[in-house]
Amino acid sequence: MHDAADGTAGRTFPAPADRTRATTVGTRLLVLDVDGTVCDSRHEVSAAACAGVARVRAAGIEVILATGRRYRDTLPVAARLGVAGPLVTASGALVKRPGDHATLLRAAFEPEVLAGVLALIVERGHEPVVYTDSYAEGFDFHCRGLPDPSSAGGGVAQYLDYNRALACVRPDLDRAPPAGVFAGFAMGSREAMLDLQTALHGTWPGRLSTHVIRSPRYRDWLCEIAPAGITKWSGILAVAEGLGIGPGSICAVGDDVNDLPMIRAAGLGIAMGNGTPEVREAADRVVAAHDDGGVAEVADILLAGLAQTAPPRAPRTR
Question: Does the pTM of the predicted model rise above 0.85?
């Protein structure tokens, strides 16, 4: 379910592209994941990645980012890469335009589902964190409290401590959620997050979109939660529609489970060499790892595809 800001209520999205016909020819939009794709194992964007993106853009291919990161956290990466187009953030739940920070798409939970999700997270002994579209207000998420900086803790304590300046503390978060929540998460061991995911879908079948993913920066695993139908791919399609680009002309590149919908559905799906086994299996091609020039290799592939479609050069006249 979406709110009025996104204009996508009732939209039916195209079926996934036929993987047997995936091709580099005719690619008009390159979609790049951030962590594990354009960012290396040091959480940095390499000069080689910047050069690869610049080559693709110079050839006339649009480039956007699709990430699980918060919008604010994505802006420096986009600036480093020279990407000025819409940013698909929070795994598709929020799409914003960096030039003026306008919201192009924002997901919305059914109120009774959100309240129940938060109650279940707390009941199982986890701390809920939820996102609102509050960039202009100077914060990014809501939580029930912040940890003592001197105390040790798991992944969620580490996350909250590191990002405390961007938190809005609401002790009654699970009893009185704020308006405008578009996504959220809990953190814990992989087993605990998989159990939580199972419980969420068992309680609200067909009304949530979730995935369990290893945090790229913090300890523990994340169970990320959004309204049903929300993935990176749903956000990408909204952007592509505005550009007049169909699914078959999109190349999507990523490394982890939240990239699977876009890798499977795009005209060309590419996995990074450091990607999970299921991502590499789903992709049409696998390139080098994020530390070994994978984005530059993506650029080589796409530019080679453009060369196949270029009209023959007219013979020189003497």
Answer: yes
In this structure, is residue 8 part of a structural domain? no
214 and 116 housed in the same domain = yes
Could you give the CA distance from residue 290 to residue 160 in angstroms, rounded to a whole number?
Answer: 27
250 to 22, 49, 87, 147, 239: CA distances (angstroms):
10, 19, 15, 43, 11
Number of structural domains in the chain: 2
- Of 228, 292, 227, the C-alpha closest to 255 is 292
pLDDT in tens, the chain (318 residues): 333 333 333 333 333 444 444 555 689 999 999 999 999 999 999 999 999 999 999 999 999 999 999 999 999 999 999 999 999 999 999 999 999 999 999 999 999 999 999 999 999 999 999 999 999 999 999 999 998 876 667 889 999 999 999 999 999 999 999 999 999 999 999 999 999 999 999 999 999 999 999 988 888 999 999 999 999 999 999 999 999 999 999 999 999 999 999 999 999 999 999 999 999 999 999 999 999 999 999 999 999 987 665 444 444 343
- Identify the domain boundary among 203, 227, 251: 227
Domain that holds residue 178: 111-227
Could you tell me if 146 and 193 lie in one domain? yes
Give the CATH number of the domain where residue 190 resides.
3.30.1240.10
Domain shared by 93 and 180, yes or no:
no
Last residue of a domain, one of 184, 203, 227: 227
Do residues 221 and 189 both lie within one domain? yes
Cβ within 8 Å of residue 268, ≥6 positions away: 22, 23, 24, 27, 250, 251, 252, 284, 285
